[in-house]
Structure formats: C-alpha cells, structure tokens
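User: Could you check the structure of this?
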Amino acid sequence: MTCDRKTVLCTKVHRAVKRWRKKFEPRVRVWKLKEEKTCEEYPSMVKDKVAEAEWKYFDVNEHWQQMKNIMTDTTQVTCGLSKGPCRHKETQWWNEEIVEAVIKYANWKKKKNRMEGVQEKS
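Assistant: Sure, the predicted structure tokens are below.
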C-alpha cells in the first residue's frame, strides 16, 4: 500500500501596500456667513446674480440646478475656500471637565505612589 499524502511546498510573496494620502479638496468657508460683513453682503450678491440670470429652462430640475449654481458660486466668492487640511484635530469629547478629571486622577496616583513608598521604607 502506498501513502496518498504528499508534502506541498509553497512560497508566499508579501508586498507592503503603500497607502496614498487622500488629496485635500478645498471646502467653502460657510462658517464665515456668521460674520456680520459677509452676512450682509451675501444676500445682495445672490439677488443681483438671480436678476442677471437667463431663466430659459422650463424643467424644474434644471431651474433648481441653475439656482443652486448661483448660490454656490456666490458663496465661494463671498466666503472663499479653505487652503489646506486641518493641522490640529480636536477631539469632540475632550473638554475642561475631562482635563480636570485627568489632572485629579494623576495627582491621586502620585499621592498613592508616594504613600506606598513611605510604607515600604518603614
């Protein structure tokens, strides 16, 4: 009787996949609309562009697309575009209350370690 099991040899080639950074896409600074100057300037510019526009479309979707383009173009002109990605990301849950709790815990831990050191020496 012969053995039906045979040794199999294989070679695995592993190549590290290089991850490409996601390219930054500038965003419209809509938060600038909260400022008084841009808040007053924006509606008047939209009204002017709407008055100048040629409304030749009878379809509602095309009409809406033209209105949307007017508003986004005006927003880009009034507010501007962001220049680069955020350099300092903030964690949403990290606030003053958490900072105080971490400091309090660190102080408690130091005090505990000191007390254990004193007890061992005694």
